[in-house]
Amino acid sequence: MSEVDDLVAKIMSQLKTGDSSSNTSSSATATSSNSSDPDLTAKDFPLFKNHPEMIKSPGGKPVKDITFQDIVDNKIDSKELRIAPSTLRLQGKLAAEAGRTQIQKNFQRAAELTQVPDDRVLEMYGALRPFRSTKQELLDISEELKTKYNAPICSNWFKEAATNYEKHKKLKGDN
C-alpha cells in the first residue's frame, strides 16, 4: 500500500469513528535532512512507512503529528502540507541507491523549485514552450534561478534550453 493509500485509509477511519485525537499524517510529506540522517538504501522506501520520524513539514513539525482535525480546525497552515526540499532530496537519495539516477535528478530539480512561488514556476514553464522566449529571456530566468532562488541545477537547465532553442530555431521570432 502506498503512503497516500495509508493516509486516505487513516483519514477515512478517523472520520468513521469520529476520533479527532488520533494522529493522521499529511500526504505532503517533508523531512529535515541533516548530517545525522541515517544512510538510506532502496530498502528504506517508502520513507514515510519506514522512517516516519524523518518526515517533517516545511516548518519542521513532524508530519506524523499532524491530524486531520488540525487541518479542519485551521490549526495547520496550508504551507505546512507541502513537501519540503529535504524530503525530495532524501527521496532522490533512495532513487539513486536503487539505480534510478534520472529520478534522483528530477527530485533534485523539484527540491530547488520548492523555493520558487507557484505562479513564477508556471511563468517559467510557459517560457520554455517553443517560440515563447528569446535567448536572453531564458538566460535571465537562468540568472534569476541561480541568484534569487539558489537553484543552480534549474538555472543550468535554462541555460541549456537557451542554447538548444537557438540551435534548433525554437526561440521567439524563429517561427
Automatic annotation (TrEMBL):
Superkingdom assignment: Bacteria
Spans annotated as Disordered: 14-62
InterPro entries associated with the record: Ppandiol/glycerol_DeHydtase_su, Prodiol/glycerol_DeHase__sf_su
Regions of compositional bias (Low complexity) in chain numbering: 20-36
NCBIfam families in the cross-refs: PRK15443.1-3
Protein name: PduE protein
UniProt source species: Lentilactobacillus kisonensis DSM 19906 = JCM 15041
